[in-house]
Design goal:
727 residues; 5-stranded mixed β-sheet; binds 2-(butylsulfanyl)adenosine
Length: 727
Amino acid sequence: MNTEANPADRVSRLRAQLNRAAHQYYTLDAPEIPDAEYDRLFQELQALEAAHPELRTPDSPTQRVGGAVLDGFAPVRHRVPMLSIRTETDTSPAGAEKFDEQVRNHLAGEQRRCELKASEPRHRAEPLHALALAALAGQPIAYVAEPKFDGLAISLRYEHGVLVQAATRGDGETGEDVTQNIRTIGQVPLRLRTEGGASPTLPVPPVLEVRGEVYMRRDDFEALNEAQRQKMAAGDKAAKTFVNPRNAAAGAVRQLDPAIAASRPLSFFAYGLGEVTPPAEGGPDWASHWQALQALKAWGFPVSALARQASGAAELIAFHAEVAAQRDALPFDIDGVVYKVDALALQRELGFVTREPRWAVAHKYPAQEQLTRVQAIDVQVGRTGKLTPVAKLAPVFVGGVTVTNATLHNELEARRKDVRVGDTVIVRRAGDVIPEVVAVLPDKRPPGAPEFTMPAHCPVCGSAVLREEGEADHRCTGGISCPAQRKQALLHFASRKAMDIEGLGDKLVEQLVDGNVVRSLPDLYRLGLAPLAALERMAEKSAQNLLDSLQASKHTTLARFLYALGIRHVGETTAKDLARHFGRLDAVMDANLDQLLQVPDVGPVVAGSIHTFFAQPHNREVVAQLRAVGLTWPEGEPAAHALLPLTGKTFVITGTLPSLSREQAKDMLEAAGAKVAGSVSKKTHYLVAGAEAGSKLEKAQSLGVPVLDEDGMRALLAGGGGPPGMP
Ligand code: IVH
């Protein structure tokens, strides 16, 4: 295998192989050699370097980890200052228009200065650049739009293609030397790639400073915090969890022990340049920022796939909206987008105001984290009696909505975060995710704030509260006699995916239960017009509407009915599985544990819960009464479920299909026995993708998951053998 007789040749060949493998693995996410092979090559290189210390160089892959624990970081003076960027706080699309207008206004001002008499003090001698004149003549300005990564800025200095220094931004003039830690990031090239890149004839500049963002992916952040929690549980006093990926990344970069830094999973995106040898001295001759980004990519730096060229304000606005729509699905945090004038000549023309370039702006998205105060911790009682502590917050605008509540999940969680009344907390709300208390600021805790404990009695009905062995949740033992549980059971029964009874909302259920008008589910169908219309905020018309939707809900499906009953552990999917498997309600009600366990995806806990539910005479009575008041659904024969054409296949649907809503496509696939999941993984059999498909499509392509359009899906459902090449 080792054909190089000369150790120096072998060392350089090993380095080239290992660098290539690291680039494939970390940056392109497309490993070419197995991990074991990488390890073998790595060990061979280590052994050679140990035997021949004179062959050791700073760009050797063996030098990514290692080095001594530092006392502190040496200061690094940036030869080209690391500027900050102006922030457009208007989070609406108008923010992009404003920027485009400011760029044009500045150019117009310069043009007026050209037209002044030479004797006037503001006169400008040299004419405007042709691109500026074109813009003033009404041509759209060429921009590059990029995500604004939420990490920390780093400057990487390469001399003759080798990484020699990495520095933080610091105050923009002077940063800190964090080379040891940055070396541990697999995505940061230790040496510029010269072969195999997109541009084969790209000479290596004598000096190249690459600027970009060090960040932590969300999944890496979650895994790191999980590992930290386990250390804490094992009694490690030094371990702590991190509030968000940015803080975790910043902490890792400023670690004095490079071994710890190496254990923290960091990533990198390149987005700009610092000092670069000028063209006249052998440096690159780029005309645009976009060209520079392409060169960086060819040299092996990760450049965001979201970055793109955009012409004029309209395309900036479109970019802002498209990235916003993908924001929650991205594997990393962003806090906005950045627009940059693309042509470097135009950038020079625009110049700087104070320390900020006129040619770039950060256009933020609504913040997903805010500080607020905990005014109280309430305990709410759910449908199954579960007690949930909820932090009542001073209203705060976060993630695009005003938040006043955040769930603390259960006692364990509330204690782990140690949230107390009076605390100042960080609240996070990302996308449709329910708001969450991320952390408490211990310094701001009022003196004497008591630790949270669960009440021993249900705050609604006074029944005893119990926590079962091995469970995190406390439960009210009052069952349906507890008004809180009754209300939640009714709301669940009426919900869209259950009986879909329009008009039966919180406020109404509250009145119906508190006034003892509705004591059980069947009572709903016994409501009359007059008593309903007499309730607060009800008029005859709305009462009639409710009666109509109650009437309409009587014709349902077995799956919806089973789900609506609110059996613990029986969600929408399990209800569908049960309906498909048994066909008839009586078959479900009379099934023994063994028979329930035959249903795909039903395990002992779920089977036990279903069996217990139907073993209670009270529940059987509710079912009998619901049938008596007229609830019906088509009953079938027990499905020979294994024979359905798509049984065992998992689909994901993304984007906008030409003629079907996603819900309709889902129903069609499920009727054919398929499962429809929310995210793409190795276990996904097909992705059905419509227009504007985003990260799910990319993920499917990277995993080699077959992608269907609507027609392809229909062909598969029609059993036409599916598109070519399908299993
Ligand atoms: S360009 C002169 N591009 O945002 C322009 N900055 O002050 C220099 N950031 O902390 C910045 N994503 O680390 C640029 N695509 C991006 C960025 C970005 C994140 C950070 C940067 C700095 C702050 C801007």
